Amino acid sequence: MRAVVLALTVALVVPEFTPGKTYVYNYEALLLGGLPHEGLARAGIKVNSKVHLSAVTENTFLMKLMDPLIYEYAGIGPKDPFVPATKLTSALAAQLQIPIKFEYANGVVGKVFAPAGVSPTVLNLHRGILNILQLNLKKTQNIYELQEAGAQGVCRTHYVISEDPKANHITVTKSKDLSHCQERIMKDVGLAYTERCAECTERIKSLIETATYNYIMKPASAGVLITEATVEEVHQFSPFNEIHGAAQMEAKQTLAFVEIEKTLVVPIKADYLARGSLQYEFATEILQTPIHLMKISDAPAQIIEVLKHLVANNVAMVHEDAPLKFVQLIQLLRVSTLENIEAIWAQFKDKPAYRRWLLDALPSVGTPVIIKFIKEKFLAGELTLPEFIQALVVALQMVTADLDTIQLTSLAMHEKIAKMPALREVVMLGYGSMIARHCVAVPTCSAELLRPIHEIAAEATSKNDIREITLALKVLGNAGHPASLKPIMKLLPGLRTAASSLPLRVQVDAILALRNIAKKEPKLVQPVALQLVLDRALHPEVRMVACIVLFESKPSVALVSSLAGALKTETNMHVVSFAYSHIKSLTRITAPDMAAVAGAANVAIKLMSRKLDRLSFRFSRALQLDYYHTPLMIGAAGSAYMINDAATILPRAVVAKARAYLAGAAADVLEIGVRTEGIQEALLKSPAADESVDRITKIKRTLRALANWKDLPNDQPLASVYIKFLGQEVAFVKIDKTIIEEIVTGPKPRELLKAALKALQEGIAWQYAKPLLAAEVRRILPTAVGVPMELSLYTAAVAAASVNVKATITPPLPEEIETMTLEQLKKTDVQLQAEARPSIALQTFAVMGVNTALIQAAVMARGKIRTIAPVKVAARADILKGNYKVEALPVEVPEHISSENQDEVPVRAPAPFDKTLCLAVPYIEIKGCVELHSHNAAFIRNDPLYYIIGQHSARATVARAEGPAVERLELEVQVGPRAAERLLKQISLIDEETPEGKAFLLKLKEILETEDKNRPVSSESRSSSSSRSNRSSSSSSSSSSSISLDQTLIMFITLFCLQYLAPHVPPVFAVIARAVRVDHKLLGYQLAAYFDKPTARVQIVVSSIAENDNLKICVDGALLSKHKVTAKLAWGPECQQYAVTAKAEAGVLGEFPAARLELEWERLPITVTTYAKKMSKHIYMAAFQAGFRLERVMNSEKEIELTLALPNQRSLNVIFRIPEMTLSRMGIHLPYAIPINPDGSLSIQIDEDILSWIQRHIKEE
Question: What are the annotated disulfide bridges (predicted)?
Fold first, then answer.
């Protein structure tokens, strides 16, 4: 019985407003943003008003706000009160009290009408009230779900209707999931090229939006009367997992019935225009920067003021507020008319500094006005080609991509631009990018936008215009519209088209053009890509590029398994290697959006042979690596593809790509690709492509062919390079024979040196500042109140540098420097004075709040970084005397050379963290300090977001420490016979046997030569015979024939290493690094290098130049024979404290070519031995995982020995002896063949033709 009564009641639930009456309600709306915890800052607005509703006709009503009041909140919750926004209320009062008209039938709001004098902002506030009245009530159900239209779009809505017979009212609860909408009203800026990572937010969401509506209704004569309605809406955002804390934008509405009046609402005397529906109407929010920058009163005058500030305060070094001023300039230009901008340009175009700042700011404005301005100024000849390209590339990426701005890019057809191929390519690529962004904003975008490009591609194909076909394919690739699939397929090889007759590079470009289409419609692209991969009649490069496209489209398990199965019978090893390495690298991927592909790859890899792991690196390869941190929802991925050719040694193509993940979004940040198609085709026609020769011969022939570059073809590009940013190709360059000729036949090195010397003698003074709006990412969402909520991130940076260089040249350069000879140049003494002040300032703003032309209330976090690195140097180059000196001179530095400030949401928290860390650099008396300050909200919650919230700063200072001042730092190099004179401290080592040093070495070489003649395989010996006897039989048998020296030779080497060349042999060169102090105390180090040609001996001695410091580092090396070399490193007082000796030799081990390296030490620092013992504990597991056999034996305690043997050019045997164990592994497969002869020598010879070509181009003829 109860169910029947309820059904009857529900049948009557229809909101009623009887004609001839005015229904009066009290209305309050509140919107508050920030972190929902006590003691943290929040910002927002509140609106109070009375609402009068009157019926004009049965389905048409008038609504008027009476006595509206607006309050603002900017404080620390919850104690701080709302403050009346008197000026704002006064400014909007007239508009707010204009009645609006709307259609309303059966609880559903229809069209909305208002006079032209009602701004979109005010009308949206009315929509917020009408949104409460939107009720889709069903007559036969009390619990149901539907997609309901509202101010925020058409979203999933759940209804629950119940009655309370005792209170005689009906309760309706309506909840909206704003994250699941058929049509969501929102605006995104700077996110067009990002991909939504749905898998990243399946379990963890960065943005949660929900709204709950509660109604109390009382029965009326023809329906029900809404007596009270409350709305609670929450938008919760965190860049990390929301369980770690999130910022909230909270909206609340209350509509309470007061009374019924007989005085009707009367419309004003004006035309009521149709102003859309209940859905929120965007106005100037896009042009309105959410940062509280300034009050714009007179934009042209304010632009001039900001320009003057930027020019005047960023000369010597960057001003700390320069990024903020640059953002202000952009904001002012956005609200300016074309006439205003024209006037400012006319005023400053002839002033270089102002001109540069304007040209850097205008492209970032992002309005159609700017595209038109840039176009007109270039066609009028007021912009240079580099200025136009720079401005256009940025402007095309920043401008709002609507139909009007897309039509502006028709300038590619203009006669002046058509004559410049590079410029036309930039415009065309930008056209494709604009279509891509437009289709993100309007998913139903028309394919007609691409019809001009389709026509260009068809016409170019009919004329066989390869350059035009390539450009059209790249434009279609940028646009990524599914309608382009058919035109692209006409250019794909092997699909019953005439594309097989097109050059290989065109076929590859056609396949790459499918990549952005695959992101939108993977099911359309996957069959095409798989068919291309499996078509053995196609060129291997085409098949491998198709493999890249296939895996980027995220194929299913079935597709990947089909590919793996087909590869079992594949005959082309490049294709096999590429696909196998690609699948294997995908098995390790951890990014959520690639989880299904990783699972498919793990299944497929089991279907393939593990022998493919041993394929050489000369075969094509693919590699993918990534890292994803789920709790913070951040990650990065990198991909690298190398497509090789069986016929030549040069890779056909190399591609590298970086991808990033953040807060549920993903983007291909950067991609660079290089192709050598023209060079490959030329090499295939040369002897370098002969398959019968070994790899070394191929390398020689390839180098010879490249050296004879003049014989390369003129009619095709030799190589090409492209760059993609955020998945869009922004530039590509084709390198042909003409470009190579310009490089090779350009200025000779001596001419460049002469020109540089002339410029230095005249002096160089250079100042430059470069601003950049590095990021502008915004999401604008309407709220239930009718006021938009905005989440935004801005990053701006300004770099500045001033450089002054002056040179004194003795003797002075001749007036006609072209007549200067090389001999004159060698006798030149150049003294240089240079001072530079590079600096950079960066500011980042993160904003959450309300942002309209009339109302702004937001919580903002700001980070600032400023770094200054001044340097002043003097240099001298006396070429004749071989003396070169560089001096670092004292320079004035600001109080802080580096500072970072992060001013987040204000907090009321316990005492902040303050710390100062200082470090004094000894000898040069410089002290560096870092001051740290942190005041965060982690006391509320121990989560990452709360550690960020607060005020943080870090400042670095450099100042003179206590002690004698340092006049300068010197680095001097002396080459040649005068090197000994420049040494500040003579080398005096403990060396009692120096007269016999050379005799020992000469005797040693005689013994070695005799040994080489009588013993092609030297017998094994060692300094510790006992340790050798402890080795197992297997180890000793594997090295029964050894290549090390015998005990007698070891003795000679040990004696030899005690001998020092100084002072009997003059140094070859000397290097002195020192600090020159006012007390003239010597501080620093000197290096002396010696070479004794008769004994083939090299020695380097590094020593302190301080008076009582005998610390030295000695390196001693000698070539004992063509197979043997030895070296010793000793350090400590007089090089007597610690020592390590290394011996390397090559020869034959048994019957195999081999090499051995031995390290012996006498004494080592305790730190070294301690860490070595710790590392040795991990050797066993590492060796096991690497496939080594491990044998525990007591080898020498102070020696490490590594023996490598080559049974053939493709395999390697390894024996590694360390104290306490011996590791070995036999038959290790090598990726490349080692060109080694049976006697152990390398069979590598430098081709005389190549050598002569290199020498000819190094020195002038």
Answer: 155-181, 197-200
